[in-house]
Amino acid sequence: xxxxxxxxxxxxxxxxxxxxxxxxxxxxxxxxxxxxxxxxxxxxxxxxxxxxxxxxxxxxxxxxxxxxxxxxxxxxxxxxxxxxxxxxxxxxxxxxxxxxxxxxxxxxxxxxxxxxxxxxxxxxxxxxxxxxxxxxxxxxxxxxxxxxxxxxxxxxxxxxxxxxxxxxxxxxxxxxxxxxxxxxxxxxxxxxxxxxxxxxxxxxxxxxxxxxxxxxxxxxxxxxxxxxxxxxxxxxxxxxxxxxxxxxxxxxxxxxxxxxxxxxxxxxxxxxxxxxxxxxxxxxxxxxxxxxxxxxxxxxxxxxxxxxxxxxxxxxxxxxxxxxxxxxxxxxxxxxxxxxxxxxxxxxxxxxxxxxxxxxxxxxxxxxxxxxxxxxxxxxxxxxxxxxxxxxxxxxxxxxxxxxxxxxxxxxxxxxxxxxxxxxxxxxxxxxxxxxxxxxxxxxxxxxxxxxxxxxxxxxxxxxxxxxxxxxxxxxxxxxxxxxxxxxxxxxxxxxxxxxxxxxxxxxxxxxxxxxx
Length: 517
Description:
One of its GO terms (biological process) is positive regulation of ubiquitin-dependent protein catabolic process. By secondary structure, the chain is an all-alpha fold.
């Protein structure tokens, strides 16, 4: 019953009805809270209504407000007795019926704007922060199944980091050269074969020397030879450049693979460290698990404080650098209007990026707070359990309907049998009465038999009436007992009723005195 009451109260909160935090079940509702809930529900159901949500101090005003609210609820279709008495002195059963009726009306109404309450917010994403204790077995199985060598992770990481640094340096050289539009000499010497470079340069020097000191005829002949020599060298250079680009592409792919493997290895190393720490905490017999959880939470809080301090220090160090960078960019692109436009667009994009990052941080903080509030909330039953309960209730209801139909059928059969027996009895008595009465006219013994028959018939009629009367009395007693149980279950306080009555009498006397004056 308490779970259903909690569900009803949560439904009211979801519909936009404000309920005090100290109310968790129906017995916690006092008359002021009941009147406030009913007023809010009526205002939500009827936009033109303006019922007060606060309880006045005057008893006359209390009775008037409760009477108006009771009439409005009765107009909505409430089945049962609804007066001011049900609101001022409510019982637990009356409160349950009233709240269930209001929830049904709110759910049927299409004008209700459902406002989510803070206590019922479902966090869509869970923050997996320092979750090593809970996922210890999963990490151990995953590590064993993958077969990673966790004995020397630091050596592998250093080797990969060293190769990564070397490959990045070579790639940066090649990218700088390609960005400038021409390849530097040292890069060409590294990439091209020595014989090709040497023959090409020697041919150029030889041709330039001969062209300087030769005659015009020899100059034309040597120009033809120069063209013939340069053409195959340029073809070979293009092929070499193409091979160089292919090697660069392969190098980039390899660098991406190495970076991915390095990050994966770092993650595995972090998991290994967390596994070691978790195993150490799990097998520590000196302190309980709660102590370690408390230490971990303190460590997390200290890390958060350190991160915030580092962020503040970095902001203080970053701002002058950004200003210096901005001034240098302005001075560098002062004479280039196109560069200034691109620089302005870049700054706008950076500003938008900063705004998005700040919004992400704000949302993350809000999410963490909501998740903490959600963790603090008491665990409720899942939707599956509610569905199972509804199915069970439906099954029991069908079973009860079947039992009721069976009982009604048996009752009808008994009634038909009783009617047939009574008709047969009346016919038998009429025939016997006629026969005995005929004999009583002839013989005095017949007269005595007729008197006995008449007395027996009257006695049985009295017995039948008494049986029917006893059955009627039993039914009335059961009804009165039920009413007595409902009355005793109500939270009737005689002292409170007497105090309210005295207050009403005083107010009436005060009003009469003012009227006379």
